[in-house]
Structure formats: structure tokens, C-alpha cells
Amino acid sequence: MAGEFCANHPDRPTALRCNKCAKLICPSCAMHTPVGYRCPQCVRGQQAVFDT
Length: 52
Known about the structure:
This protein has 52 residues and is α+β, with helices and mostly antiparallel strands. The chain has one domain (1-52). It has one helix at 40-51, and strands at residues 31-33, 36-38. The chain has a two-stranded antiparallel sheet with strand order 1-2. The longest helix is centred in the last third of the chain and has 12 residues, at 40-51.
């Protein structure tokens, strides 16, 4: 985990990755979905698909 930090919070070390885009995310950013943890950007992108 050395040198791995949240993409949205560069001061927070993390080992979590979004299971869609593989971006590093901290527990504050991680959004639990039925298919695993995703970053807020991927969740918003998926919501846009269903909202259309």
C-alpha cells in the first residue's frame, strides 16, 4: 500500500479500488453497490444511464 492514496483525498492512504474504473478510493468515497464498491463518479455515471 506504500504510496497509494485516494484519488479524491490525496492525504488519505488507501488500498480500496473502485471495481469499475479501478481508481483508488478511501472509505469516505467508497459507495457500496450490489456489485461491490464504486467511486462516486462511476455511481453518478451509472445513475445517468438509468435516468435517461
